[in-house]
User: What shape does this take?
Amino acid sequence: MHVEILLRNRLRSFLNLLGVMWLDVILSSTGAFWGTSEYLRIMQGTLVSRLVVSVFALPFLYTYLQWQSRKKGIEIGNRPVLAILKQVAEIKLKLSLAQQEIEMRKQAEKERDMLIEALKKSLSEVKILRSFLPICSVCKKTRDEKGYWNQIEAYIMDHSEAEFSHGICRECARVHYPELDL
Assistant: This one.
């Protein structure tokens, strides 16, 4: 049982070291050689060389970790290799959360843009009468911007999308058309 735990710890240490070294290769070589014709060959050679270095460094790493684990009261944050791995995991989580936030913001911006377009369309379809409207107190004609007097219906139709239908109220019918008996 003790041998199995020992082997598992050694394997975990080796995989951690190899992971850190390969991460370094991916980050540095990709940044330096991405897009070149030699990129894949350089990546392959560098990853293999890091594997060989990891195999030779494993005894030193394992000895260091054993020495650190024997120390009492030392937290993982004070163990450099383990601290680096913890930071990589935290960065990966933060990047994932940032990516989710970016996607949510893109969706919100898309919805906002659609709403703005709908509002622009609605606004272009609405005509509003806004101004001081001079009106004759006798015949109720209105004076337009050029100084001409027009029927109020014509003015409103020219300055809005309103349409008129004519009828007659009861008072006017009694005065002007008494024979209708409304």
